[in-house]
Amino acid sequence: MPRWDPEAKERLRAAALELFAEHGYENATVTQITERAGLTRRTFSRYFADKRDVLFAGSEQVPDAMADAVRRADPALPLFPALLAALVDAGDLFAGLVSHAAQRRAIIASSPELQERERTKLAAVTAAVVEALQERGATESSAKMLAQVGVAIFQTAFERWTEKPEDTDFAAQIQQAAAELAAHLVP
Predict the structure, then answer these.
(1) What integer pLDDT is reported at residue 57 of this predicted model?
(2) Distances from the Cα of 133 to the Cα of 24, 77, 145, angstroms
(3) CA–CA dist 51, 40 (Å, integer)
(4) Can you give the pLDDT at residue 1?
(5) Which segments in the chain show pLDDT lower than 70?
(6) According to the CATH classification, is domain 58-185 in 3.30.450.40?
(7) Which of 25, 57, 73, 151 has its CA 20 to 30 Å from the CA of residue 85?
(8) pLDDT given at position 47
(9) DSSP letters along 14-42, please?
(10) Which residues lie below 8 Å from residue 116, measured CB to CB, with a gap of 6+?
(11) How many CB atoms lie within 10 A of CB 113?
(12) Residue 3, pLDDT score
């Protein structure tokens, strides 16, 4: 009887990412992933619902993590500075994802199906942040606008940070993206 392998999930993820990069997301199969990882399809099913889930597993936790970060921000801060502080806080939670983020992003960019799933995930994050901002006193309209801007800043900062995580910390990337946006708003 096979024993539980504590590295199985990461082996499956690594095998899937390799195959997606080599053959394209659409052309890689779960069978190929499990064979490359040296594991069974049953083991794959223990960790992932399907091959898309390899790229999105855990993403259901992101909306709550972002909203909770907004709620934890200093209550004395105005809405936008509180949102920026929350983005930094939430970014620290995702630090463990850096090793696969750039590769994941490239795979998602190559597939309309995956792009749609990414947009759905980001919409859920935005909705959760809207709710948290409203709890802090923002009007619905302001909360929606700030949440959309905040998610865009987070995406930009996270993308830049994952390309070169050794060059700067995530907080600096958030501040740089926010400053870049502000520079474009002032004539």
Answers:
(1) 82
(2) 39, 12, 10
(3) 14
(4) 37
(5) 1-4, 95-99, 165
(6) no
(7) 57
(8) 92
(9) HHHHHHHHHH-TTT--HHHHHHHHT--HH
(10) none
(11) 11
(12) 59
The number of beta carbons lying within 10 Å of the beta carbon of residue 15 is: 21
Cβ-contact 54, 65 below 8 angstroms: no
CA triple 175-176-180, angle to 5 deg: 115
Query: How far apart are alpha carbons 108 and 85 in whole angstroms?
Result: 28
- pLDDT at residue 163, rounded to an integer: 79
**Cβ(142)–Cβ(133) below 8 Å:** yes
pLDDT at 97: 58
pLDDT of residue 4: 62
**Is 135:141 a contact under the CB 8 Å cutoff?**
no
Q: Interior CA angle at 157 toward 118 and 14, to 5°?
A: 55
Q: What is the pTM of this model?
A: 0.85
* Single-letter residue type at 38: G
The rounded distance, in Å, linking the Cα atoms of 165 and 152 is: 19
Superfamily of domain 8-55: Homeodomain-like (1.10.10.60)
| Lookup: tokens for 137 | 């006193």
Q: What residue spans in the chain does CATH classification 1.10.10.60 cover?
A: 8-55
d(CA 150, CA 152): 5
For residue 85, which of 160, 148, 6, 171 has the smallest C-alpha distance?
171
